[in-house]
Amino acid sequence: MKSRQHDFGPSDDSLFNDVLSSLDIAVFERENPGEFRLRGLPPDWWSVCFGPADCTLLDLGRCSPFLQDYLAGAHPVWESTPGTIEKSGAWAESDRQGGTMTLEATVLSIGSRRLLLIERLGLRFEQMRDIVQRARERTLAEDIAVKSHRKTETRLMGQLEASKRTKDDALLLLQHLKLAALVLDEHGHITFVSDSGLEMLGLAAENVVGRQWEQALPLQKQDRLMIREMLGLSSHGGKIGPFHIEGPSPCWIEMELHRDPRHPGRRIVVLNDRTELHALRRALNEQASFHDLMGKSPAMLRIYQLVQDIAQVDTTVLIEGETGTGKELIARAIHSTSGRRNKPFIAANCAGLTDSLLTSQLFGHKRGAFTGAVNDQQGLFEAAEGGTLFLDEIGDIPSQVQTALLRVLQEKEITKLGEAKPRKVEVRVLAATHHNLSEDVVRGSFRADLLYRIRIARVQLPPLRERRKDIPLLAYSFLDQICTATGKTIKLLNPDTLRLLMSHPWPGNVRELKSAIEFSVISCKGKEVLPTDLPPEITGSSVVSSPSVWISITDQDAKSRLLAALSDAKGNRTEAARRLGVSRATFYRRLVELNIHPTR
User: Fold this and answer.
1) Domain extents for the chain?
2) Domain 553-600 falls in which CATH fold?
3) Comparing C-alpha atoms, which of 298, 246, 300, 198 is closest to residue 509?
4) Dihedrals phi, psi of 163, to nearest 5 degrees
5) Do 178-273 and 10-121 have the same topology in CATH?
6) What is 178-273's CATH topology?
7) Domain topology for 287-462
8) Angle, to 10 degrees, between the axis of helix 471-486 and the axis of helix 509-523?
9) Beta strand 457-460 with 317-320: parallel, antiparallel or unpaired?
């Protein structure tokens, strides 16, 4: 870096510098190609890696080739594309003390300024990398062990077939090689178990030998069905599993089925212990999930942390997001992580109910309060006493119910229909909506004071199209769930199938993805999901595109026409501008002029 006088501009504010220091971020502004000037104070680690802290120009000669190549590239941000943000990905940078640190660069534009942010990734990133590295090493060691077992098994089978030894000789050989193995006769009875097999299963020989394998092995029903099917095949068997053994020594095993060379009706079953590998895979999967939520994208990791933080305080929460993004799952995660986890969680959908029905449902009613009220009825607030009440689609609550709900939140008491005396309730309220409630307040359909009361804490769920890295993880999770429920044994998604899933816009979000996988499992005839198994709206086959709707922007109600174009284009602003017959720049200008803030 080259020394020049500081030129902080607006970034000399102490709060700005404190924020940069807390986040471990150095901020530069691009003045010319290849020239980046420091804005604000650099973090402490900067001088250790790149030179004195009083240098304000980034000296690329001190930087790693990775950062040099990244900054020399042609980025849309350099071309003044508005709103563009790019990340370089993590790289290792050597410091002046002989060590290394992991960094990540981000380029973005704010107005006419082009910024470069260099962030030091923290301990959590290092721990995740170590976990992945250990997983790779364990997997490699497992592959080597499997190959060794396979060579041993192949040699064993060859010896059995070539030498025509007697059954006793073969069993002694199995014991000598210390393989965990079973031998089944033509009727499925266990005639032999090696000592290693008994040790692995945690069973005694007298409880196994002579019994049907289905009675002797403590397997789940669906696993027994799969093994029975494989044993019945006329061809040579194969590797199946892993299966969970539920006996005195619970473990996960993988089975390899072979025919006895001298007796085609008999089977030799070789067992491989996969308990340690299963535990490792489970640990890795837990890194990508939180309660029933699934995803490992940065957006979802932030959501997990936010849920944990919100669960520690006992306040109302507004969960915002498009339909199908999993707002109720977020509510359940907050409840399950909070101190109310052992109390009731009650969910209520507020959409489509009249004033009286919703009031009765929420607060309850006394007998005779209205026509049809033949008995006293407890409301959801009472049912959720001490726990959590989740109000889904709160933006659709009628105005009269909004007033009653506001009083409940303020006074912590309810009044049943047909009663005059209020009663105290102790309930945490979580609310969700796909509306923009701020716009509803402007239109007069939602009370501003109620919005401020429920929006003390908030969670904004990203749509699936903004976290596409989670699509393969979600797709395989849904595939496992649906196959378990239907009894199918589909294990793979074809690469072309994954490409189609990754490119689809998913207007229905995670709920639509789950439906698409369920459709594919029903359609699939083989062992992997092919593109032809996907729904037609994803593959593009037999789908008639809706005609473009050209709308004049010169009509009096320009705002409603802009909103209609956005809705018709499913939120895609470029497509909406095309439908209106104007340039994208004009379309963006009109959005600002008319104070329209689309969610996408």
Assistant:
1) 10-121, 178-273, 287-462, 553-600
2) Arc Repressor Mutant, subunit A (1.10.10)
3) 300
4) -90, -15
5) yes
6) Beta-Lactamase (3.30.450)
7) Rossmann fold (3.40.50)
8) 50
9) parallel
Question: For residues 431 and 318, is the Cβ–Cβ distance under 8 A?
Answer: yes
Round to whole Å and give the CA distance between 203 and 274: 18
Give 16-72 pLDDT, tens digit per residue.
Answer: 777 776 777 888 888 888 788 888 888 877 777 776 756 788 877 778 888 888 888
| Closest residue by Cα to residue 213 from 186, 237, 233, 235 | 186
> Percent of the chain beyond pLDDT 90?
12
Residues whose CB is less than 8 angstroms from the CB of residue 136 and which lie 6 or more positions away in sequence, other chains included: none
Q: Worst-scoring range by mean pLDDT, 200-204, 290-294, 396-400, 501-505?
A: 290-294
Is this structure's pTM higher than 0.70?
no
Of 592, 84, 505, 570, the residue nearest 579 (C-alpha): 570
User: Residue length, the chain?
Assistant: 600
| Structure token digits, residue 373 | 């009220």
CATH code for the part of the protein at 10-121: 3.30.450.20
Say how far apart CA 200 and CA 272 lie, in whole Å. 9
| Strand 364-365, strand 528-529: pairing | unpaired
Express each pLDDT in 95-115 by its tens digit: 777 777 888 888 888 877 888
DSSP 8-state secondary structure symbol assigned to residue 470 = G
User: Based on C-alpha coordinates, what's the Rg of the chain?
Assistant: 32
**Residue 585 pLDDT > 80:** no
Which residue type occupies 594?
L
